[in-house]
Design goal:
Elements lengths: L1 H34 L1 H18 L6 E5 L10 E5 L7 H7 L5 E6 L9 H7 L3 E3 L4 H18 L2 E4 L16 H10 L4 E8 L17 E6 L3 E2 L5 H13 L7
Parallel strand pairs: 1-7, 2-5, 2-6, 3-4, 3-5
Antiparallel strand pairs: 6-7, 6-8
Helix pairs in contact: 1-2, 2-3, 5-6
Amino acid sequence: MAKILSYPLTVIYYLAFGFLLVIFHPVQWICLNVFGYQAHKKSVDLLNLGLTRCLLLLGNRVSFRNPNKIPVGRPTIIVANHQSMYDIPPVIWYMRKYHPKFISKKELGKGIPSVSYNLRHGGSVLINRRNSDQALREIRKIAAYANEHGRSVVIFPEGTRSSKGKMKKFKRSGLQTLIEEMPEAQVIPISINNSWKTVRYGAFPMGIGNHITFDVHPSIEVSSATTEALIDQIESTIISSIKAYE
C-alpha cells in the first residue's frame, strides 16, 4: 500500500523539487553577479532549505541534531557517510554558518539547474574520478580556499553512495589530502541514517514516511593525531551512530 501511495506523491515531489531548481538558477546568477558572494550564498541556503522541506511532501522528515558548540569562521572539514543525494540539501542548510563547499564529480558540473551553477561558481570543485592527479589538484585547491577564507569542505569518503545504510570502507586518499593540506582545521564528523530509504525503490517511486537523521559529533582537531589515526577515529565515530551497525 505504501509503495502504491508513493507514486502520486513522488510526482508531486519532483514537480516541487524541479520548480525550485529552475527558479533559483537565475536568482543565483543575479545574486552572484550583482551583489556578490554573500548574496549568492544566501540564495543557495534558501534553495536548500526549500529542497529539504520538499521531503515533507513524501512524509519524510529530517532531524539534524547538533548539540555541540563548534567554532565558526575557521578552516573545517565536514566528513559524513553518504546514502543518497538527499543527504546534501540538509547539510548545506543546517551547516550554513560553516559555508560548506563540496568535492563533486565533474558530471554534476553541467546540465542541472541551480546545482551545476553553484558547484561551478560557489567555491566547490569538480573532480574526474578516473584521473587521480586532477582530483588531487582540485582537492588541494579547495583546501587552500578553505584555509584562506575560514570555510568548510564537505567530503564523503566512501566515494559512492552506500545501500541499505551499511557504510563502506573509507577511500582515504581524498580525506588524507585535505587533512595534510589543512593542518589548522577542525573536523566535524556527521552520521546520516535512513536517507537511503528515500531511494529504496530507485528514482521512481521514492520511499515515503521515513525519518532521516543527521547526528553531528564533537569536532576533532586535525593536529590532535597522526593522519592515519585521525581517519580511523573519524570513521569509527561515524559508524558508531549508524543504525545498520547497532
